[in-house]
Structure formats: C-alpha cells, structure tokens
Amino acid sequence: MQKCFFKIIVPNYNNLKWLDRCLLSIMQQSFVDWQCVVVDDDSDEFGVTPILEIAQAKDRRFTIIKSDKKLWNGGARNVGIRFGIPSEYTVFVDSDDCLKDKDALKDLYNFIVKNNSPDCIRIQYEMEYDGNKLSQIRLEDNNPKDLVHSIFVACWTKVIKSELVQLFPENTLMEDVVQHIKQCDKIESVALFPRIFYHHNRNNENSCSIEQNQNLQNGKWQSSMFRYMADLLDLEVEHDYCEEERIKRKIACYENIMKGKYWQ
Predict the structure, then answer these.
(1) Burial class of 1 by CB neighbour count within 10 A (0 to 12, 13 to 18, 19+)
(2) Pairing with 169, which of 10, 21, 155, 235 sits 20 to 30 Å away (CA)?
(3) What is the pTM of this model?
(4) Residues near 37 by Cβ (< 8 Å), separated by ≥ 6?
C-alpha cells in the first residue's frame, strides 16, 4: 500500500447523531494525501452501519473495520494503529468530534514542513458545550517535559510521527493517561500548531467521559480504575520527567481508590 502523509484513526461506538459530521469533516479536506481507518466498536445503534458504508463507497480513502466484540476506545485505536497503512503522521479523531474546517490538514501539513517535521504537534481546539456554546482551548506545552505533566492528555490533542505512536491500554475506560506518558517518553521535539484544528464535542449525552455516565457505568469505571493502577505500576519509562508523572498519577490513583472515586 502506498504511503500517505496523514493516517487518521477514528474509533466509533454508536454515535449516530455525530458520526456523519465527523466523517464529512475528513472527506471534505482540501489536503488529499490521507487515509482514514474507522474502527467500529461493535455498535448496536440502528443506522451506524449505513453511514460507514456510504462513506467508504464515496471515498476509498476510508477503510471501515467492524469489531464483533467490545474493544473500548483504547482497543479500537490500537486496531487502527496496527492496520497496515504506512504514513508519516497519525491523527486521532473521536467520532463525536470533527476537524475544524476544510483546510485543517493542509495548514497542518505546511506547518510540519516549515518546522522540520517535529515528532509531535500540539493541537489547539475549540470545545462545544451546553448546547452550542464554544470556547477555545490554547495548549502551550512545547517540549516533552512540560507536555507529559499537562492535564490535557487526550490523544487527539497531539499529532504524532507514525513511527513513534504508542499503543493504548485495552478493555478500560482509562486508556488516555498511560498512553500519554508512554508517548511523551518517545518524542524529542514538540511544535505548537498556531490555529484551531479540532472541534471537541461535549454535548454528547452518551459519552462515557461525562459525569452522569460515570455513575451509570460505575462497574466498568471501577474495574478500569484498578486496571489503570496496574498499568501505571507496570509502566517502564526512560526519562525522569515521565517517571515523575507516572509516580504522581499512581499516588493519585491510589488515593481515589481509597476514597471510592473510580474515575480520574
């Protein structure tokens, strides 16, 4: 398979309400050298499969992989990482989010070339919440040491050289922090993309990250907290600043378990 510049990985579970917007934001990019892997995490919502099939029929740069068992976000993203599309950089997009506008990838490509192909590009984004309110989130961590200590750990806030992308913990709702620490341990250079690239949706009432669903899925959050502790205990890193963050997160995790708080 011919190498592309951007490999875009989209995990999806149901999200019928937002999925079409997400895929269209990728399909309509003015920059054309991309491939997108959508990993459907055993969706059972009627209408999801037709949207995925239509996207693939319209644009062969989409590859749809349907899992017949629940993988959770980390496992679904790992399928996309392992899928054999060679690329220069990997972009993560959640299926209830989207790219900001049609020139997002073009401007990112030009930025990467101008800045001598950094290992990591820190993404600026806007957040939609309370119906249709918007706020801009500006992230300013421009080196791995500062980046690893950031509270903004979501994988979609970072575009990474594909050869450096790290796998996620699986079968858990807490896949992001451990992968973030692993990722920061493998990069040497970070550049700040100066404009809003990503649209983050906090209006998805089915998202497992919002507080009411943390309560509804308490059993899964509880098991995830213990997996999170185990992943932190097992994690081996090379840099002192990553080890410092691992220890800090381990202590916080232990304290939360003792308090009966089963999410980060």
Answers:
(1) exposed
(2) 21
(3) 0.95
(4) 7, 8, 9, 10, 63, 65, 79, 80, 83, 85
Query: The domain that contains 24 carries what CATH number?
Result: 3.90.550.10
Residues 201, 122: Cα–Cα separation, whole Å: 19
Residue 21 lies in a domain: yes
Cα distance between residue 254 and residue 228, in whole Å? 10
What's the pLDDT at 75?
97
Q: Which domain holds residue 194?
A: 4-205
Residue 42 lies in a domain: yes
Residue 119 C-alpha from the chain's centroid: 16
How, if at all, do strands 190-201 and 158-161 pair?
unpaired
Residue 204 has pLDDT above 80, yes or no: no
Residue 212 scores a pLDDT above 50: no
Task: Give the per-residue pLDDT at 158.
Answer: 98
